[in-house]
Amino acid sequence: MTLWQARLDSAPDKALVAFTESLSFDRRLAPYDLAASIAHVNGLARGGLLDSSERDTLVATLEAVGQEMAAGKFEFRSSDEDVHTAIERRVTELAGETGAKVHTGRSRNDQVATAMRLWVRSELLEVVAGLIGLQDALAARAVEAGDSYLPGYTHLQRAQPVLLAHHFLAHGWALARDVDRLFDCLDRVDVSPLGAGALAGSSLPLDPDGVAAELGFARRFDNSLDAVADRDFVAEALFVVAMVAVHLSRIGEEIVLWSTDEFGFVTLADEFSTGSSMLPQKKNADVAELARGKCGRLIGNLTGWLATMKGLPLAYNRDLQEDKEPLFDSVDQVGRALVAVAGMVATMRLNVAVMQQAADSPYGAAIDLAEWLVVRGTPFRQAHGLVASLVKESFLRQVPLEELVEASDKFGVEAVSLLAPGVAVTRRTTPGGAGPVPLRLQADAFARCLEEEASRLDALASRMKPVIPPFR
Ligand code: ARG
Q1: Ligand 1 pocket member 112 (CB < 6 A)
Q2: From 4, 27, 109, mutation site for ligand 1 pocket: most ligand atoms within 8 A of C-beta
Q3: CB distance 320 to ligand 1 below 6 Å
């Protein structure tokens, strides 16, 4: 039975049920729906709409339903339109007339918005934890890398040598912005819609503030229409996890390249490699490729959801039910990707000798020659031109750059020392630069950033997590 059958003369057609149900994918909201229902029941009792024995019965029944679900003993029926219907149906089966009071002053519109916000809060905190896990792996590899270096690239052409630690931390900082975005998004998610009803609030003495506080929300809604119609928090969550996926994709792409015979910069651990069903010699980087590949799907989930929302008049429309599958999918995928990429990064072998050899070309120090002239008074544009001519000549006549520098009246033997292997990277001394001197400060700053993230996560988790008693 649907919750709304009394209005209609005939039962819903099978085709309607099959097309409109959400139970097949929204049952994972059950713990949050139960927590919100318990808070709602407590609010009804505070308003005098339930006496204390009715309240106790309803709370105990909701907890019992939670236990049935946690034990896998809850029987969903195909006639349960969604998880909210299933729970109310079961509460009424178990608690009779008292059960029939649970939906007092409430609509599935504010109910589903509340459950979604509770779900998003808890899951985004898991994504933060996953991000911190990957950042830890990157930071550990940065420490291990010490003063080793590799070519830094622009346009995927060798540009200047950079410390390997600097490269790892570059990805770490991008992920730090993702963490920051998640915390920021969580702030807007942290609003209780319960008490908005179908769209307009209620004539009954509800207690939206008390319910919000019991669920650990920072505040309640300001406008009932907005409370049930708003899903920009879903769009925002989809964007932030898509951004995480874009970052994972870029890391993945690099590792695909680095693990080729052509680069040879890293060798993936066997636990994080796959083989070929046909070619016996193959060792493939499927984790890195899927970190890249799944990103497309997450971007699709975001754009699809934005398109669904764009035409909806206030307030609730059934279209809003379409928020769930893309959001669940994106959050699930990014959670798995973070763990897999962290494992791959933590276990890959760094072929430092290969990286350094690739970075040791004297051309990678061409800018150091130009800057050598600059500190001796040559305007930069002229210095750039002079060095570029030497480089061109070196390629054209196949003469080592060192020889031309030594023979040049602008340079001489002192300048040749700039071109020796391992020298250029040590000369990047400005704040945030790629050399060892600024790196020490950067590494300290990154360690502090990780500590701050962990303490913000702890503070939020203690408020946002313990609201699902039957599933704790
Ligand atoms: N399953 C629905 C959803 O996810 C619940 C709300 C149904 N509300 C309604 N007025 N039909 O949006």
Answers
A1: yes
A2: 109
A3: yes
Backbone phi, psi, residue 274, to 5°: -120, 165
Confidence (pTM): 0.96
Domain residue limits, the chain: 5-99, 116-197+219-358, 361-420
Q: Are strands 157-163 and 266-267 parallel, antiparallel or unpaired?
A: unpaired
Residue to probe by mutation, ligand 1, list 112, 114, 120, most atoms within 8 Å of CB: 112
Task: Quote the tokens at residue 460.
Answer: 């939020």
Domain range 361-420, its CATH number among 3.40.50.300, 3.40.50.1000, 1.10.10.10, 1.10.40.30: 1.10.40.30
Residue type, 163: L
Task: From the CA of 116, give the closest atom in ligand 1.
Answer: 4
R_g of the chain computed on alpha carbons = 30
155 noted as active-site residue = yes
| Integer Cα distance of 420 and 362 in angstroms | 7
In CATH terms, 5-99 corresponds, of 3.30.1390.10, 3.10.290.10, 3.40.50.1370, 1.10.275.10, to: 1.10.275.10
pLDDT more than 90, % of the chain? 94
Q: Tell me if residue 202 is catalytic.
A: no
What would the pLDDT profile of 431-451 be if each residue is shown by its tens digit?
999 999 999 999 999 999 999
